[in-house]
User: Fold this.
Amino acid sequence: MMKGTYYDPGKMESRAIDIVDNVPLNATELAALWNTYMHYTMFVCIFKHFSQTAEDNEVRMIMEDAVNICSKRVDRVTELFNNENLPIPLGFTDNDVNLNAPRLFTDPYYLYYMVNANKIAIGINGLSFVTSGRADIRDFYDHCINSSIHLYNNTVNVLLSKGMYIRPPIITTAKEVDYVKKQNFLGGFLGERRSLLAQEISALFYGIITNNIGKRLLMGFRQTARSGQVRKFMDRGVNLSSSFIDTFSSSLTREDVPDPVQWDFMVTDSTTPVFSDKFMMYHTTLIISAGILNYAASMATSPRHDLAGHYTKALAEVANYLEDGINILIDNGWYEEPPRTVDRRELVNEPKH
Assistant:
């Protein structure tokens, strides 16, 4: 009779941690940590402004909590890079935010921004967790995931308590389970359209929500940017978001599904620069990248051809917008280069000593 294998998770974790010193960071872990440093030095800046200008005590407490959590993540990545003798990225500092500037957004916007930021963070940190091998890196992203869930839950609870949580539509569904019997289930451009699936409504609903949040962010950036080039880029983003909101809203209202309420009071009339142009451009490219992921996921979960067409068009426009944004960052010397492999061809051409 074979003896059973005894599995002790604690012992396995201890063994994994013991061998960390012998294993350098792999490319996936290095990329994840580098991006984490860039993202959270940025978030420290924006949440400092939010915490200093929030009028409601509950909102201020959440923003202060976020500053503390993001700062700890930056400190941990710094520690890991120092242990590996890797250069610390420049990222963003207090030089990129004017903490004496008047508020650029209202308290409700702070809450909606926080919810959206942590939705993205939970996904990115989850991916970083499952693609990391070293126990200390997995432990770090485990903490990142849980602290993002903590911030998300606290923010949603405040929105609910203040009656500001935007709920997705409640729909009436069939009472019986059935299979699809006709190919027109996929149709949408011509002829009779079937009603929207719950998952299609969800994708459209959150497409409207995220574009509203992004649009307000770019409106604030547009009215405070120092560079005419940056203002023009932000204006283009505001117009793109408006077109996507109109497209997604019409797909809902055409079938008597209510679209989310738009909050028009989220941006103040301040024109005092709060963030550096470098900061605003980087942040904008970050939310554009998140938009690409959202549209790809929405297209994958929306079988109706007309909806897939909307997302395909959005993907193309947003990808082009992202490329133009990166070019502006490069032209102005603002695009910090991520870690990359040594170019062996350059080594061949270097003079020999």
Observations:
- Residues 27-53 form the longest helix (27 residues).
